[in-house]
Write a structure and sequence with these properties.
alpha/beta; eight-stranded mixed sheet; three-stranded antiparallel sheet; 16 helices; 42% helix; 15% strand; globular
Length: 424
């Protein structure tokens, strides 16, 4: 949502997109009414073909104009507990009550527009053999500007705090965007105190080196300067924080894979037209997860664009982390020695090109071959962390973490979780 400040500085395309989204949201009640009018037994009986067509159109209209909120996790059999809290993130523990001992797994959710609830199927699957913790990122526009900017450096610092909390007794997983800061954080931890470095990292569909087999998104990203992004896709939220709007990110993702969107829309229309309530509910549940998007802090978005997509700092050996005290430290993946590495890609991923994730093996040159694995899933797109591809992949991930789950030697000291300013 934009504030009146946008009128002072002039509307940019991001502000226009926000205004269009607000206009669409205002039309939602009309589509709800139309859907209710034709999607009922009387209308279906009196004019089955016409009512079905109108119900299908109304279902699409209602979906396209809906104001989506974070649907939450709501995973049966798992109890959500906030273990650590930061201004922009909660570390959520999905606890079991069966008393079974499982391997701790830190899932670093991507901060690329979607809420962490998109990983519901991921968490449910991993929880069979793992004690799962997930970074639940907050919508930046809802975080008080008093907490300052959130950057890629802030993201990485959060992960270092989490490593210290687990004292090295944890496996990690980076999905999509989060693979870069996860790899950077493990490299930094390995250089300073490898005792707290995680036992393993699994990187899935992550843009570690976007110069390898660049996709359309990679090529489009390089057509503009950082200033262009600053002037065209950044908007001021009502809270006064500059953000990259979530609805703009969703539009971009849909444009990268338009056939997927068309297929989903056609399936919903047909399901609503034939009055298949169960199918409509399945489509709605899936769409709620994918369409619920959050705003990203502008500083984070711009630093990520420059570091990952424009300058390719990580594969070029130029990535630097700046901590809260202003200390700059080079990120050197070759310093990772004890953390096992598993990279996974989708063969037909339209967002992350082939070998962009597997590139981590070349960067992490000090990890012994006995601690490495890589896998490319035939026929899988970017979202293979859900559905059938994910369930087929789970046994291999579980076997990997089990084989690298040696007990860490610890000094007999008591560690205290980091005390940061509470989120508002």
């Amino acid at each position: 949502m934009t504030s009146s400040n946008a009128l002072v500085r002039g509307f940019n395309p991001a502000d226009t997109a926000n205004a269009m989204q607000a206009l669409a949201n205002a039309q939602n009640p009309m589509w709800q009414f139309t859907r209710a009018m034709f999607d009922n037994p009387f209308a279906r009986f009196m004019a089955p073909h016409f009512a079905g067509t109108m119900a299908g159109m109304a279902a699409l209209g209602e979906r396209m104009t809906r104001d989506y909120k974070d649907p939450g996790f709501k995973i049966p059999g798992l109890r959500e507990e906030v273990t650590l809290s930061f201004p922009f993130c909660d570390l959520v523990h999905f606890a079991h009550d069966d008393g079974k001992v499982r391997r701790p797994m830190l899932v670093v959710a991507p901060m690329s527009g979607h809420y962490a609830s998109l990983l519901r199927d991921t968490i449910k699957g991993l929880s069979q053999d793992h004690d799962v913790y997930v970074t639940n990122w907050r919508c930046a526009s809802r975080v008080s500007p008093d907490h300052g900017a959130f950057t890629l450096d802030t993201y990485t610092t959060y992960l270092l705090h989490m490593f210290r909390y687990f004292e090295g007794n944890v496996h990690t997983m980076g999905i999509s965007q989060s693979g870069v800061p996860l790899l950077a954080a493990i490299a930094l931890q390995s250089a300073v105190n490898p005792r707290f470095a995680p036992k393993s990292m699994t990187l899935m569909a992550s843009p570690i080196d976007v110069t390898r087999n660049p996709r359309r998104m990679n090529k489009l990203a390089e057509q503009h300067s950082l200033n262009w992004y600053r002037n065209n896709v950044i908007s001021m939220s009502a809270s006064g924080r500059d953000v990259y709007p979530g609805n703009l990110q969703l539009m971009g993702l849909n444009s990268l894979d338009p056939m997927h969107l068309q297929s989903k829309s056609r399936d919903l229309f047909n399901a609503a037209a034939r009055n298949d309530t169960a199918a409509v509910q399945r489509h709605d549940a899936d769409n709620d997860d994918f369409s619920a998007v959050m705003d990203l802090d502008a500083a984070f978005y711009l630093q990520t664009m420059q570091t990952v997509f424009l300058d390719h700092d990580l594969p070029n050996g130029k990535m630097v982390h700046t901590d809260t005290q202003g200390l700059r430290t080079p990120v050197v993946p070759a310093q990772i020695k004890k953390t096992a590495l598993f990279t996974i890609e989708g063969k037909i991923d339209p967002i992350v090109g082939n070998d962009q994730t597997h590139a981590a093996h070349d960067l992490c040159s000090s990890i012994p071959s006995s601690k490495r694995d890589r896998h490319t899933i035939d026929g899988a797109d970017h979202y293979f962390f859900r559905g059938a591809p994910w369930h087929a992949l789970l046994p291999r991930i579980s076997a990997f973490t089990a084989s690298h789950d040696a007990v860490q030697k610890r000094d007999h000291i008591q560690l205290v979780a980091p005390q940061l300013a509470p989120a508002k």
